[in-house]
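Tip: read the tokens left to right.
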């Protein structure tokens, strides 16, 4: 069992982190992508063409939310619909050149911001922090319900 002190530290620091990240994002006027668009474009860029069901499962969103977000990306020219050859009623989303370019630009901006925050850290600290964040995110992803003990 994790100590209460450790849990309290994690709980509070997560609350502070979320608040500060939200504050930073609220101040980014003129950004071409918001968090939802970034995550959706990133997922399509990494895995290739994908349908709303697969995207929803990966991003832990319902199909209607993914469809709505993807429709906005399509209107902006970031993705296009590609018919599913096996199921004429279904389609996949594929990232466009504009989508790739703006995703790359946005990601480089994010990386530069993060670099400024951790530039005084040594490589081992950055690596450890990244690995722990990934482990924490995987724990969140695999959680099936709030009271899941597994």
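Filled-in amino acids:
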């Amino acid at each position: 069992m994790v100590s209460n002190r450790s849990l309290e530290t994690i709980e509070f620091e997560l609350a502070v982190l979320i608040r500060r990240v939200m504050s930073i994002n609220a101040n980014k006027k003129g950004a071409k992508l918001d968090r939802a668009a970034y995550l959706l474009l990133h997922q399509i860029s990494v895995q290739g063409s994908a349908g709303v069901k697969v995207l929803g499962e990966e991003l832990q969103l319902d199909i209607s939310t993914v469809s709505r977000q993807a429709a906005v990306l399509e209107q902006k020219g970031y993705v296009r619909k590609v018919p599913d050859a096996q199921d004429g009623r279904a389609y996949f989303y594929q990232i466009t050149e504009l989508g790739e370019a703006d995703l790359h630009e946005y990601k480089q901006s994010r990386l530069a911001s993060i670099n400024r925050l951790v530039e005084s850290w040594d490589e081992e600290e950055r690596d450890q922090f990244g690995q722990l964040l990934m482990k924490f995110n995987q724990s969140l992803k695999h959680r099936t319900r709030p009271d899941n003990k597994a």
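Helices lie at 4-26, 35-47, 52-59, 63-75, 97-118, 123-142. Residues 144-150 have pLDDT under 50 and may be disordered.
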